[in-house]
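Researcher: Re-running this chain for the archive, since the previous output was lost when a drive failed. Same request as before.
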Amino acid sequence: MKKECLECGEKIVGRADKKFCDDACRNAYNNNINKDSTNLIRNTHNRLRKNYRILESLNPGQKTTVPKSKLMEKGFDFNQITSIYRTKVGTVYYFVYDQGYLPIEGDYYTLVKKEQ
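Model: Regenerated structure tokens:
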């Protein structure tokens, strides 16, 4: 029984459970399988990553307050979040992974980091 490489189709020599002829074929195969299939997914992920980095840079501790203008000046996109958390009293926090923000009065935001 001849086994063929899943990427290039060449004959595989070696272990019985081997699927690829070399590391380059294994990497190419997995890169093709795991690549973002659409620009929408890739662009959304990039905006979320940018938002996360902005929140992380402005909130090095666990909690701080910043003006909305500072977030906007760094290019923060308020439409890109990963979750919403509502407290028992109805306060709404918006999160990008573990970095969150709470809109407060006067165009200010309280930045928080979710405890693990």
